Amino acid sequence: MISLLLEPFEFGFMQRALLGACLVSLACATIGVFLVLRRMAFLGDALAHTVMPGIVLAHFHQFNLFVGALAASLLAATGIGWLSRRESIREDTAIGIVFTGMFALGILYMSSRRSFRDFTHILFGNVIGITGLDLLILAAVATVVLLGILLLFKELELTSFDPRYAAVIGLSSGKVRFALLILCALAVVAAIQAVGVLLTAALLITPAATAAQLTRRLLPMMIVSVAVAFLSCLIGLYTSYYADLASGATIVLAALACFLVSLGIASARRGRVQPDSGVRESGAPESNTAR
Amino acid sequence: MIHLGYAGRHHAHPVPAAPALEVRNLSIRYAGAEEDALDRVSLTAEIGSRIALVGPNGAGKSTLLKAVAGLLPTPPDRVRIYGNAVGACHHRVTYLEQRSEVDWHFPITVERLVMTGRYVHLGWFHRPGPEDRRIVLTALERLGLASLAKRQIRNLSGGQQQRALLARALAQEADLLLFDEPLTALDFETQEAVLAVLRELHQEGKTLLMATHELDRLEADFDAAYRFDRGRVRPLA
């Protein structure tokens, strides 16, 4: 049994894949918690699509795919932020316009080169193919995302639940939101390597949604979210190795399985506690709300 | 470490001898509206005074409070707060909305919610210190919320929510308090508790501007009252 678990990781590419998965989980699952709590889940998917032209350009002109993806997603995040600054365009509208436009640009470029075949690993990810340089870039991205969250934590928190009070004390929700967009763009670029453009949203959203079922506190939620993301990557890698299946798909389906389990746990808990009594979740044996 | 305030500049000091709030000929019209929400409104609140804003719903009370809180764009020089322009000293002004837009399902404790009242003093990148925690604890105690400090805000009753927001206003240690009907939808007991805190704030020299429906209490609890009617304002004797 032990050898069965260890065998895949005797290979260098599997070790790199595991380390890469770990870094991707750190970057995505933490920022994902804010996306879920702010009801911005759609954003992750959209940003993932916007990197297409960057990746295609990088592929044809032989520079690092990360650099292309990063440039494209930062451009898109800036574009979305800039468009939705005016009152006549809501953010979801801006996202819809920018992400389809960028995706189309990518397809246009591909079709002009009459080459769609090389891009399956962009669409579906290839965590097994991670190189040493990719790992370095992933580590840098994860560090920047975590540092960003750490530095802006109290502002991210306040603008998430009470943007009006933030405005009263002169804290611009727009600025914080833009910073969140940029951090999210970074996380997306990391995730694309692991699961590809089409499935990236899963690494941002599903682990965070799973954690939100299991805990009601912000910091534990982020920790559980990272753990779920990493566990999903691990299960996904094993399944991919032994059953010879696409790793991006197995990772996402493992995350989905985690989410379903958390749903089960949450409803089992609710069954034991009276709904909305609030006493259990707060952990305080105080009876003020139970009137 | 340097202090980086949210508004990007240092907090302005009060101008000597200036009133806490001076509004001169302020008119505000919402986009697409036929009439002014505020029509050439003027009023003055001396430091330490308690001003009641009365009148029917939609008469402009909330619009005035929002304008002073900096939530609506105002023409320059129409509103002076301690002699400064709106937004020059965010820490000195706090605003309690009639219906808060707080996401009460957000995972945060009562204690941390009240702590956000300290953020204007902390600015970017600074974390709350022992002094901030002491101020938060005092605010919680004054509103009888100390035992609920670790509770998630989603598990508060309506009255407790309102008290938590008031505790945050106390934690901010603002000098000009803008309260929009803070007593509506509160049970009698909570109303009394809130009124007691308001009286204490008055004794501490705070200035209070409050929209209210409690006409029978005007003389006991306020130094002056203004009646709002379709955007126009006149002082009540």
Chain-wise SSE layout:
The complex is a heterodimer of chains A (291) and B (237).
Chain A: H1 2-6, H2 12-37, H3 41-50, H4 52-60, H5 65-83, H6 91-112, H7 120-124, H8 132-151, H9 153-161, H10 163-168, H11 173-195, H12 200-214, H13 218-243, H14 247-272, H15 279-282
Helix pairs in contact in A: 2-8, 2-11, 2-12, 2-13, 3-6, 3-11, 3-12, 4-5, 4-6, 5-6, 5-11, 8-11, 11-12, 12-13, 12-14, 13-14
Chain B: E1 21-28, E2 38-45, E3 50-54, H1 61-69, E4 79-81, E5 84-85, E6 93-96, H2 110-115, H3 119-122, H4 130-142, H5 158-171, E7 176-180, H6 188-203, E8 207-211, H7 218-221, E9 224-229, E10 232-236
Parallel strand pairs in B: 3-8, 3-9, 6-7, 7-8
Antiparallel strand pairs in B: 1-2, 1-4, 4-5, 9-10
Short description:
Chain A has 291 residues and is an all-alpha fold. Chain A is built from 15 helices and no strands.
CATH class designation of chain A: Mainly Alpha
Largest sheet of chain B: 6 strands, mixed
When the domains of chain A are counted, the total is 1
Strand percent estimate of chain A: under 5%
How is the largest sheet of chain B built, in terms of strand order?
Answer: 6-7-8-3-9-10
Largest sheet of chain A: none
Helix content of chain A: over 70%
Helical residues, percent of chain B:
25-40%
Report low-confidence residues of chain A grouped into runs of 5 or more: 277-291
Report the total helices of chain B: 7
Shape of chain B: globular
Radius of gyration of chain B: 18 Å
- The whole-number mean of residue pLDDT values of chain B reads 89
State the total count of DSSP E strands of chain A: 0
